[in-house]
């Protein structure tokens, strides 16, 4: 990136947002964080980074941040992200993701922000007949989490069409791993994501774990996901900021590698990297899970010049395992 930017990182004390803060610092930019600490951790905030405690739906706070720091761009990570929780408590997701994001976009437009990178999700696609999934696929979320993000995408798209705001919407597939330098990783408690749970089991932090569903229409009957290393995902955000800085037109792109691994594949890799068998039992399907979610990431590569550096499940797992060993 050529010019230095001041970037407002929402959810900057969370798992993915904290990796963005590190990447911005590494590249010589200035991150400013807003986080309500509903799931964020102070431990993940590097010292010296300006930190505002509050929700992105607090328009007065967002106005104050934009006023006190010359914000050049926004990277909006803050959200509730647990698929099964969204099935049990949909209103939490519609309020915290869709409503608060709408308020946040409005405050950004009011403050004259022109560049916006938004964290969306593969959950907007739901079950598809074709794999890998490209951005032209019909959106048919299987759960309120996906719907809440899809609605936020619409708000952003329509707002950009009516103002001089430009955006990059990134639809994440399954983000996993940790900073290869060990500076950040997942701290969520209780853990819900497969690789986090599996590495916890591998280091004895939990006695056993379950495979949710063994009767899916996949080769081994378990769900298939496209696991992307968090550092490669963040590289896509950095490329998106650079693209918008150069005046690139609004765009939407998938973030994944283009190949998937089943739940059983992942557990085999975790057991192999950890050097010990995991205590795993089969369990019924979890509500809201699509059978297969694999990204066609052609657009991310061509439009943003993105190329992955960590496209290796063993690397993802070993970085997650190292973080878990050092931080549990
Ligand atoms: N799983 C298990 N056992 C566990 C945990 C998970 O079998 O203990 C299975 C799930 O049922 C699913 C797969 O592992 O089949 C992956 O589950 P995760 O909870 O790790 O991830 P999800 O696919 O449910 O969701 C993640 C993100 C979402 C994103 C979605 C897109 O949390 O934000 O990927 O694929 F939308």
Q: Give unreliable regions as ranges.
A: none
Distance between the termini: 35 Å
Largest sheet, strands/sense/barrel: 7 strands, parallel
* Number of helical segments with 4 or more residues: 10
Fold-level CATH name of the domain at 6-177 and 227-255: Rossmann fold
Mean pLDDT, to the nearest integer, reads 96
Rg, Å, rounded: 19 Å
Summarize this entry quickly.
The protein has ten helices and 14 strands.
Provide a descriptive summary of the structure in words.
By secondary structure, the chain is α/β, with parallel strands linked by helices. It is built from 10 helices and 14 strands. The radius of gyration is 19 Å and the shape is globular. The chain binds uridine-5'-diphosphate-4-deoxy-4-fluoro-alpha-D-galactose. Uridine-5'-diphosphate-4-deoxy-4-fluoro-alpha-D-galactose (UFG) binds at residues 81, 83, 121-123, 173-174, 192-194, 197, 209-212, 223, 225, 263, 286, 289, 293.
List keywords for this structure.
328 residues; 14 strands; Rossmann fold; three-stranded mixed sheet; alpha/beta
Secondary structure topology:
Layout: E1 6-10, H1 15-26, E2 30-35, E3 51-53, H2 59-68, E4 73-76, H3 83-88, H4 90-110, E5 115-121, H5 144-162, E6 166-172, E7 174-176, H6 194-202, E8 209-212, E9 224-225, E10 227-229, H7 230-245, E11 251-255, E12 261-262, H8 263-274, E13 280-283, E14 292-293, H9 298-304, H10 313-327
Parallel strand pairs: 1-2, 1-4, 2-3, 4-5, 5-6, 6-11, 7-10, 8-13, 9-14
Antiparallel strand pairs: 9-12
Helix pairs in contact: 1-7, 2-4, 4-5, 6-8, 6-10, 8-10
């Amino acid at each position: 990136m050529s010019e230095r930017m001041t970037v407002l990182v929402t959810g900057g004390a969370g798992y993915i947002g904290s990796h963005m803060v590190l990447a911005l610092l590494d590249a010589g930019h200035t991150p400013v964080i807003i986080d309500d600490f509903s799931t964020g951790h102070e431990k993940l905030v590097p010292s010296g980074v300006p930190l505002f405690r509050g929700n992105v739906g607090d328009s007065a706070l967002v106005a104050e941040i934009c006023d006190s720091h010359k914000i050049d761009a926004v990277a909006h990570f803050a959200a509730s992200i647990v698929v099964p929780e969204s099935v049990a408590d949909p209103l939490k997701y519609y309020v915290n993701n869709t409503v608060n994001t709408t308020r946040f976009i409005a405050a950004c437009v009011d403050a004259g922000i022109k560049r916006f990178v938004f964290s969306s999700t593969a959950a907007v696609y739901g079950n598809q007949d074709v794999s890998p999934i490209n951005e032209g696929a019909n959106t048919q979320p299987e759960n309120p989490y996906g719907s809440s993000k899809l609605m936020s995408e619409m708000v952003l798209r329509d707002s950009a069409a009516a103002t001089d705001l430009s955006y990059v919407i990134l639809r994440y597939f399954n983000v996993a791993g940790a900073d290869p330098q060990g500076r950040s990783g997942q701290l969520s408690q209780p853990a819900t994501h497969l690789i986090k749970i599996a590495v916890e089991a591998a280091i004895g932090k939990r006695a056993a774990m379950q495979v949710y569903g063994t009767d899916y229409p996949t080769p081994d009957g378990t769900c298939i996901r496209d696991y992307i290393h968090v550092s490669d995902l963040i590289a896509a955000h950095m490329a998106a900021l650079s693209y918008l800085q150069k005046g690139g037109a609004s765009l939407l792109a998938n973030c994944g590698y283009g190949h998937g691994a089943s739940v059983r594949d992942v557990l085999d890799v975790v057991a192999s990297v950890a050097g010990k068998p995991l205590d795993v039992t089969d369990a019924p399907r979890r509500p809201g899970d699509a059978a297969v979610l694999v990204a066609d990431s052609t657009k991310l590569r061509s439009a943003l010049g993105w190329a992955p550096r960590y496209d290796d499940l063993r690397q993802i797992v070993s970085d997650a395992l190292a973080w878990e060993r050092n931080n549990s």
